[in-house]
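Sample intake sheet
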Amino acid sequence: MSFEGRLSVSNSHPFLIEAEELLSDHTSHLIIDARSEEHYSAGHIPGAIHFCAYDQFVRSTSPIGLSRFQRSMAETYSKIGVDPHKPVVVYEEKTGMRAARDCWMIQYMGHPNVRILHGGVEAWRQKNGALDTEPISLDSTIFDCIARDDIIISARDILGHLATPTTTVLDVRTYEEYTGSGGSSCCPRQGRLPGAHWLEWTNLLGKDGRFKTSEDLRRILQEHHISTEHPVITYCHRGARSAVAYYALKMAGCHEVRNYIGSWHEWAIRNDLPIESGR
């Protein structure tokens, strides 16, 4: 597909913004650079602040756990200057898990207008966008959480879906993580959620660092026997790779998608939750 075709496709999705659009009006957006501090210091989009919630795990998706996390993130977003009345754009080097998780997180917290820079700062450079090395900090704001319960799911609620044949639980980690032959050392158990389908998140992105087209995504889902007509629950280790999958499934036309933000990090530490392993 031509670039113009890719552009028109992405513009039909409210969670993506193209470099051209941001270039034309970047001063009206709060821009968040989710890369490392080293990369930010080497050159960032003018006006962008440096922040990433990648290392902030959701350790419990119980009502109390989510309430604590919401309070913590509302305080954090207030401190860094996230204004609920100003559009937010999050980016990294290309389209990836860090920007997707932050975008999903801010959306979950109730911000009505947050998008991922499609193709990341690489797309910005390709359109001759300027870079700045001056660090940016903003005045604090008041960011109150209005949680989006329609885009998240808890461990308790997943248990109720495991026996539901019309709900797909989608593991987007590596095959080694999925089978339990590998995984993060912080997790006391390795394996997957019972009955989970496997589709590694990297298959949803093109070599150009952008989401594949909606048509290609639908084809990939069909090949993996995932219906766009039925609910899908995405998970990974910390809800980052699964955030990429969440948005890719939205692009493919899935009617109901929820990101399990606690993901394997929470599931593995709870011995009361069932797991599977092996092929």
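Comment: The beta strands are 16-17, 30-33, 49-50, 88-91, 114-117, 168-171, 197-198, 232-235, 257-259. The CA atoms of residues 250 and 257 lie 7 Å apart.
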